[in-house]
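Weekly modeling sync, notes
Attendees: S.R. (lead), two postdocs, one rotation student

Agenda item 3: backlog of single-chain predictions. S.R. asked that every request posted to the team notebook include the full sequence so nobody has to chase files. The rotation student volunteered to paste the first one in as an example of the format we agreed on. Action items at the bottom.

Example entry:
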Amino acid sequence: GFGVYQVTRNKVLGQGKAIEYVHVQDWWFIDTYYRNGEKISESVYEKEMEDFEKNGVVIARQLKKTNALNDGSEDS
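Predicted structure, as returned to the notebook:
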């Protein structure tokens, strides 16, 4: 990578299960998506997030930005 990243973690909680989705944005234009550690397409990620939000499912979101010039910052 280029050393500049934004990582968004979404934990979807429901029916006694937790699913973790991760969106890694490298240098603001290379996007990679994961569901429980498995790589998925952007369209699958977007559709599933949209479906969860439409159905009122709780999504816990954590955002982390890092770059080579600092040790990163975290926003929730």
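Discussion: group reviewed the output briefly. Residues 5-67 form one domain.
Action items: rotation student to repeat for the remaining queue; S.R. to check formatting next week.
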